[in-house]
Each structure stands twice: as structure tokens, then as C-alpha cells.
Design brief:
The complex is a heterodimer of chains A (114) and B (113). With 114 residues, chain A is an all-beta fold. Chain A is built from no helices and twelve strands. In chain A, strands 2, 5, 6, 10, 11 and 12 form a six-stranded mixed sheet that branches. In chain A, strands 3-9-8-7 form a four-stranded antiparallel sheet, with no helix packed on it. A two-stranded antiparallel sheet of chain A has the order 1-4. Classes of the chains: A mainly beta (114), B mainly beta (113).
Chain lengths: 114, 113
């Protein structure tokens, strides 16, 4: 069965610090990968997605992620975080062509101190 | 644009009661799914549907039933609520086509006492 592991459960950064959140998945076939963000009290919103092509994908609000197939990883990065990035971040994976059945990681809570 | 609409937003049940969480989407999406979100466990897939009349189990289906009689609606039924079902429930939909992400509803916060 597919699974997704997010290494950091709770990250605290100061504004302007760089961010990298780890995500590893277990599935040997072709996958689609996603990062979602959940701001306090809100529903999940898509940050970025990888389906094929350039393994470095750029999303909204300055976020990017790199798909490294050999490492089964899809880490999320942002060069300089802002207080408004305080949220919970979820990595998710699905088999290619089955975008309705996402498997999510446990989530990482990011707290950015002003 | 309504997107994915969930009702109610909040619900308190007593153990053993039944209820239905409603989910409707107006995007003509084929895929619909239900997740529950619990602290430290991320989102776990309960049931999903790839089209009207077709449903399947996800990671944590026990205690929940679903049906998909129309493309628009995908209700989630709790037949006999248990405290372990206290959670936040999210409905999501997708066109299912290549490059199509999930669209989430605003969630239903359920407490079972």
C-alpha cells in the first residue's frame, strides 16, 4: 500500500529564514505528488503539484518542491518565510491517473515568529 | 462559484446516534472522496467514488457508509456514532483527469460524546 512520511512534525522558524520540509513516499510506480497547505481554521488549499516533466515545480506564494525519483522524495522549500506562512503543510501522493485517491502524510505544523 | 459544499459545519452527537454528513459539488467532478483529519495523523481516506453508482473503501472505512446516486452528491453516513469518530471531516472532489488536483470543502467538525 502507498504511504507518505513527513519527517518534521513541528517546525519553528523566524521570519526570513529558509524552509525545507521533507516528504518521502513508498510506491514503486508512477506517481503524482502534491503539497497542500491548511491555514488556521481553513480547509486545505493546493500549494503545488507534480505530474510529469521538470522535477522542480513552483507553486503559489514562492513555494517550490523538487521531485527526486531515486529517493522517493518530494521536499517543499521556500527561500524566505513570512509570518503569514504559519500553517500546517501536507504532502500527498496518488498513483498516476487516479487523482481522486490521495494518500496524505501526517502533516507538518510550521510556526513563523515575527 | 460554490465548489465543494459541506453541511453541517459543526455537529455534536451522543454515542450510538446516527447522522449523515452532506457533501455537494457543482463542478461536474467524477471523483469524490471523504477524509478525516486527526491531530498528528494527517488526513486519512475513508471512502471514495469514481462516479455515480461506484464507491470504494479507503484507509479507514469502518463505521462509515457512503453512496453516490448522483454526480453532485456524496453523503457520508455514521450509523452508530462512537467517540473514536470525533474528528474533522473533509469532502473533496476532482475531475479525475490528468493534472487535476483535489478541491476540498470547508470541513465538518464532529464531536461524539
Amino acid at each position: 500500500a502507498q504511504s507518505v512520511s513527513q519527517h518534521n512534525h513541528h517546525v519553528i522558524l523566524s521570519e526570513a529564514a529558509s524552509l525545507e520540509l521533507g516528504c518521502n513516499y513508498s510506491y514503486g510506480g508512477t506517481v503524482n505528488l502534491f503539497w497542500y497547505v491548511q491555514y488556521p481554521g481553513q480547509h486545505l488549499q493546493l500549494l503545488l503539484k507534480y505530474f510529469s516533466g521538470d522535477p522542480l515545480v513552483k507553486g503559489i506564494k514562492g513555494f517550490e518542491a523538487e521531485f527526486i525519483k531515486s529517493k522517493f522524495s518530494f521536499n517543499l522549500r521556500k527561500p524566505s518565510v513570512q509570518w503569514s506562512d504559519t500553517a500546517e503543510y501536507f504532502c500527498a501522493v496518488t498513483r498516476s491517473g487516479n487523482t481522486g485517491k490521495l494518500i496524505f502524510g501526517q502533516g507538518t505544523t510550521l510556526q513563523v515568529k515575527p | 462559484n460554490a465548489g465543494v459544499t459541506q453541511t453541517p459545519k459543526f455537529q455534536v452527537l451522543k454515542t450510538g446516534q446516527s447522522m449523515t454528513l452532506q457533501c455537494a459539488q457543482d463542478m461536474n467532478h467524477e471523483y469524490m472522496s471523504w477524509y478525516r483529519q486527526d491531530p498528528g495523523m494527517g488526513l486519512r481516506l475513508i471512502h471514495y467514488s469514481v462516479g455515480a453508482g461506484i464507491t470504494d473503501q479507503g484507509e479507514v472505512p469502518n463505521g462509515y457508509n457512503v453512496s453516490r446516486s448522483t454526480t453532485e452528491d456524496f453523503p457520508l453516513r455514521l450509523l452508530s456514532a462512537a467517540p473514536s469518530q470525533t474528528s474533522v471531516y473533509f469532502c473533496a472532489s476532482s475531475s479525475g483527469s490528468y493534472n487535476s488536483p483535489l478541491h476540498f470543502g470547508n470541513g465538518t467538525r464532529l464531536t461524539v460524546t
